[in-house]
Write a structure and sequence with these properties.
Layout lengths: L13 E4 L6 E6 L9 E8 L7 E9 L6 E6 L7 E8 L2 E2 L3 E4 L9 E6 L10 H7 L6 E4 L31 H11 L3 H9 L1 E4 L10 E2 L2 E2 L11 H15 L14 E5 L3 E5 L15 H5 L8 H17 L3 E5 L24 H13 L5 E5 L5 E7 L14 E7 L17 H8 L3 E5 L3 E8 L3 E9 L10 E9 L6 E2 L1
Parallel strand pairs: 1-11, 9-10, 10-11, 15-16, 16-17, 17-19
Antiparallel strand pairs: 1-2, 2-5, 3-4, 3-6, 6-7, 6-8, 9-21, 12-13, 14-15, 18-19, 18-20, 21-22, 22-23, 23-24
Helix pairs in contact: 1-3, 2-4
Bound molecules: fe (ii) ion.
The site of fe (ii) ion has 6 residues, from loops.
């Protein structure tokens, strides 16, 4: 793997994302010596790795107003093809990226890797390297926490690893967030995984700040000079859209929910459960937690989700997949009075609406891919795990959930006291198939018309760079079963 350039115009690499059957977003950034410069950047996309058979190309301008990032919606392309692309400016060439369009029509197989929670000071991005080393993926699903907003040392100290993120303070302003993305994109493993695979990404809370909701965040503190929430959120969103290979929606407002059709095999629906949600209810406020008026998705997104699921089921698409942030499954045993308010457990009315919809519309073969918790979980998704669900047969299950461990953030159960939670949860949750609270890695999701296979790959450490990984767990969901079985 070539070392990333730490000088020159193209020092942040290249990326692609939001693939469709006929087009894909291509991304790069130039770093000019003069911040007032306007730089012509040419691009081309080709059918071969040597970029001989060019199928599209052009020139775009990089300028300060978008932090010198460049995004192109390249097409028209042919479905289910690998393509290769590069940028050039002022006589310099970028690395050559590789991407893939979505299939159309009958589709035998789809392979995705799911990742989240890459925390630069907390460790090396070894899981990204593992994903980059897989040549046969259709796309990488990033379910959020692509960056962390904190000052070094608050959540992960990169001093010993020489991974201190810039700026040397918490990211609050547009300039802060842009600089933070630039630090992350200096990482060679992150650059490589972007270079070789298209990304389909959504944000979680740390792209803005910890435990965010539509109107604020636990870690937004105007009294400490962090200013107006709306200004901060808009700044964070702007930097995200500048730096991520995402197709930007037309019109007012920002929403990230969008769908990707992998031929007749998978409809992937990406959700934003963070940016438009109601404030977390205090854990003891059970009435608020059950209140159907409280929302995680907001009415427009919820309506869109239901329309998409219904249409997908009726079209006969084999599988439906949700890419979203916070854990969906019920994880609070009845004898535990206080639910964890930052997951769908804290928005039970909203979750009931989804479950009611799945049951009423007979939406089947649905896999919910989540992240956020810095741990690995797998569930049969059921309305009530203790009533009307049978673990031995999967009777009563409506979907399955696959929760992605962190790339490098500190694992959930590493601290004494927390570690003891794992066996208690395993004993208390009949629908829980996997809980690993101590390792980092990613999930490989391999889909055919007959079954969905999910494999958890773990890395031995993030304290040094390594390509080592182990297959830690694997479950299969046979089509029509809505349940996970050890593979
Ligand atoms: Fe995270």
């Amino acid at each position: 793997m070539p070392a990333p350039a730490d000088a020159g115009l193209f020092r942040h690499g290249v990326a692609s994302g939001d693939p469709l059957a006929d087009r894909v977003i291509l991304w790069t950034r130039v770093t000019p010596a003069d911040p007032r410069a306007v730089i012509d950047v040419d691009w081309r996309i080709a059918a071969d790795p040597a970029l001989g058979q060019v199928v599209a190309g052009g020139t775009v301008q990089a300028r300060a107003a978008r932090d010198f990032t460049v995004k192109v919606d390249a097409g028209p392309l042919r479905p289910d093809r690998r393509y290769y692309y590069a940028f050039g400016a002022r006589g310099e060439r970028s690395p050559i990226g590789r991407t893939k369009t979505l299939p159309e029509g009958p589709t035998a197989r789809v392979r995705l890797a799911s990742v989240c929670c890459s925390n630069y000071p907390a460790g090396f991005f070894n899981p990204y390297r593992g994903v980059a080393n897989r040549a046969d993926l259709d796309a990488v699903l990033h379910v959020g926490d692509y960056i962390y907003e904190f000052q070094n040392g608050v959540y992960g100290d990169g001093s010993g690893l020489l991974r201190i993120p810039e700026p040397r303070k918490e990211a609050v302003t547009l300039s802060d967030y842009r600089i933070r993305y630039a630090t992350y994109r200096s990482d060679p493993d992150l650059q490589e995984v972007h270079r070789v695979h298209p990304f389909i990404a959504v944000w979680d809370d740390h792209e803005v700040t910890n435990d965010g909701w539509a109107g604020g965040a636990a870690n937004h503190n105007p009294e400490r000079g962090e200013g107006d929430w709306a200004v901060r959120q808009a700044a964070a969103y702007q930097a995200y859209l500048e730096w991520m290979p995402i197709r930007e929606a037309a019109g007012a407002g920002i929403h990230l929910y969008r769908s990707f059709r992998f031929g007749t095999l998978v409809d992937l629906l990406m959700l934003d459960t963070r940016g438009v949600r109601d404030r977390q209810a205090p854990g003891k406020d059970l009435a608020a937690i059950a209140d159907p008026r409280r929302t995680l998705l907001g009415a427009p997104q919820e309506g869109w989700l239901f329309d998409e699921l219904r249409a997908s089921q009726r079209a006969g698409t084999a599988w439906r997949m949700l890419g979203q942030q916070v854990m969906f499954s019920r994880v609070t045993p009845p004898q535990w009075p206080v639910p964890y308010p930052d997951t769908w457990d804290g928005y039970q009315g909203a979750r009931d609406r989804v479950l009611d919809f799945l049951a009423a519309e007979r939406v089947r073969d649905l896999a919910i891919v989540s992240g956020d918790l810095h741990s690995s979980w797998a569930f049969d998704v059921t309305r009530n795990p203790w009533d009307g669900y049978q673990a031995s047969t999967g009777a009563g299950a409506l979907a399955v959930e696959l929760l992605t461990p962190a790339v490098s953030s500190p694992p959930l159960f590493v601290n004494p006291g927390a570690r003891e939670m794992a066996p208690l949860l395993r004993a208390a949750l009949p629908h829980l198939k996997l809980l690993d609270g101590e390792r980092r890695g990613y999930v490989l999701i391999d889909v055919t018309a007959e079954r969905l296979l999910a494999e958890w790959y773990f890395v031995p450490t993030v304290q040094e760079r390594t390509a080592e990984e182990t297959r830690g767990a694997a479950f299969v969901c046979e089509r029509g079963s809505s349940r996970l079985v050890t593979a």
